[in-house]
Each structure stands twice: as C-alpha cells, then as structure tokens.
Specification:
mainly alpha, 5 helices, globular
Amino acid sequence: MPNRSLRDWIDMPPVWLFGALCLTWIIGEVLPGPEVGVVLRWIGLFLIGAGLVIIFAALFAFFRARTSPIPRDTPNTLLTGGIFGLTRNPIYLGDVLVLTGFALKWDAVLALFLVPLFMAVIQRRFILPEEEKNKDLFKTGYAEYAGRVRRWV
C-alpha cells in the first residue's frame, strides 16, 4: 500500500459524497422547497438502501478478489463479474443513489442539482483516470469489458 498524504486521503470519493450530503442537508434546511411527501420519502429510503447494497456488493467483490477498492491504487485484477457485470462503477453508482435518496428523504428537492454535479466531479477526478489505468494494465480485456458494460448503468 503506497504512502499517502493527508491531501490524498481527503481527495477520496467518500469525502466528496460526505460533502455533497452535507450541502444537501444544508440546502434542505435553509432553502425550503416543495415538500416531497411520504411516497417520495419512502422512495428516498429505498434508494439509500439500494445504494448501500450496491456499494457493499462491490466492496465484497474487491476483497474476494484481493484487490484494492481505493481509487488511486493499482488493481491486480480486472473485476468483470457480479455487480461489475452490470456497471463498471458500482460504488460510484451506489454513491449517486445514496445522495439522491437523502435529498428526497430530507425534503431537499432543490439540492437535486448536486446529483449531476457530483457525478461530473467523480467522473473527472476518479472514473476517467481509473479507466486509463485499466486500459494500460488490462489492454484488450478492458476494451472488451468496457464495450460490453456501461460506465454508470
């Protein structure tokens, strides 16, 4: 495991998610928007649960394959089965579902603009560099996988 600076630990997807969740909560508290109602709050809870299930399924796959889930680490294997057969980025997809779910649960409809913004940040800072690394490491295996499985869903 490489030595990491504090900056490296702070610039991680869970920290970006935590920041987006904090902003979502603040927006919900400060800028009263339309109330979502009971049904959408339940949908929000479902999205949070689904996101967490997807995240833990992906983490289990990483640990079972004995490769690192940390974005800037070099993977020793290309995960293509299970949850990775449905999306190339299940943890990031789970993060998006969790963020969307909390926006609904907290009646923070006005904060839903953070979801595509969060996706853009994650894609630029983490997904695209990871894809380049995977192209270099796994060559045609990654190209075939990327042609078969979509980046998000």
